[in-house]
Design a protein that fits this description.
Elements lengths: L2 E4 L3 E7 L24 E7 L1 H11 L5 E6 L4 H9 L7 E3 L6 E7 L5 E6 L11 H8 L4 E4 L4 H13 L4 E3 L10 H8 L4 E5 H11 L3 H7 L2 E5 L5 E4 L6 E3 L13 H15 L3 H16 L11 H12 L1 H11 L1
Parallel strand pairs: 1-4, 1-8, 2-6, 4-5, 8-9, 9-10, 10-11
Antiparallel strand pairs: 2-3, 6-7, 11-12, 12-13
Length: 324
């Protein structure tokens, strides 16, 4: 199964604040917030929604096709992704702009405040999916993740025009999108990804009810934080999958991307939605135990031992046949 992953390619600058953001906010002064946080450390890591998801899929052996835009400073990052099983030949390289930057501070309660510089990401709207499909011999699914908003709209419309199944995954971009754009991006999606908060925001901005949205997509996948994930399809019983036990809760950035990587890999393997969600939750657990979105190591024996402990022997046997 050939899956193209569209989305941002960025460098993450991750900082840790030892206190709580909530303690620094004055309720009646929120309209004039002016704060600076003295942080303990700085980690510069590879990131971006598209690259994170593709990296995770590469670790699981499903050879995803990364589609996005980066700057001339992408050479080292490209080599890293290539080495970890990602097809990067469809990444557009800007002649004038740097690769995007994400700057994020996490407090003691794992709340986050972040900013994103788009840079070369703005050129993702110039990428034609047909060129990608022709190069690899066709596409079975396109995951449309957080990216330049115009690129997200263009990729969605092209998938509809060319009858390519697509997954809608607004993620961080939902905050700046209006209801009309969200309607365009989700209508007819084979899969709709969001977390619980984003789910409510989608319904609020579109004016569509939960049931109306579910009727417009094939499968609705809602991540629930530490409670796992809920999967819904019209006329079918809801699937709920919990998370494996964590060995440590180190840093949450990239956890959602890892879940999507595992879930999409499960789709590529042809396993059930429940199994795909279990793989996603296991991979997400590895990420929360690590600083950085692509710094975890997928040791297959350890992965399968923990997967078996969380989901049982039958699930492990089915997945191990694909993971190797």
């Amino acid at each position: 199964m050939r899956i193209a992953v569209t989305g941002s390619i960025a460098t993450d600058h991750l900082m840790t604040f030892p206190g709580r953001f909530a303690d620094q906010l004055v309720a009646d002064q929120l309209h004039t917030v002016s704060l600076s946080f003295l942080v303990d450390n700085l980690d510069v890591r590879r990131g971006g929604v598209g690259a994170n998801i593709a990296f995770g899929m590469g670790q699981l052996g499903t050879r995803p096709i990364l589609v996005g835009a980066a700057g001339a400073d992408f050479d080292e990052y490209r080599a890293w992704l290539d080495r970890h099983g990602v097809d990067t030949e469809s990444v557009r390289i800007s002649e004038t702009l740097h690769t995007a930057r994400f700057v994020c501070t996490t407090d003691a309660d794992h709340n986050q405040i972040g900013s994103f510089y788009t840079g070369a990401m703005s050129e993702a709207r110039l990428i034609e999916l047909k060129t990608v499909a022709d190069r690899v011999g066709g596409l079975d699914l396109v995951s449309i993740g957080a990216d330049d908003p115009e690129a997200m709209l263009r990729h969605t419309e092209e998938c509809r025009t060319r009858s390519i199944p697509f997954a809608a995954d607004f993620s961080q971009q939902i905050a700046r999108m209006g209801g009309d754009d969200i309607k365009v991006l989700l209508d007819g999606a084979a899969y709709l990804f969001s977390n619980e908060y984003e789910k409510g925001l989608i319904e609020s901005k579109t004016g569509w009810s939960d049931a109306e949205i579910l009727a417009k997509v094939g499968t609705r996948v809602t991540t629930l934080g530490s409670r796992g994930v809920r999967i819904e399809r019209v006329g079918e019983e809801t699937i709920e999958v919990g998370c494996p036990d964590e060995e440590a809760k180190v840093e949450p950035t990239g956890v959602g991307d890892a879940f999507r990587a595992g879930f999409l890999s499960g789709l590529a393997w042809g396993v059930s939605l429940e199994r795909a969600a279990q793989v996603g939750c296991m991979l997400a657990t590895l990420v929360i135990e690590t600083v950085g979105t692509q710094e975890y190591t997928l040791r297959r024996a350890n992965f399968m031992n923990r997967f078996r402990k969380a989901y049982g022997d039958d699930a492990a046997i089915e997945v191990q046949g694909h993971l190797g």
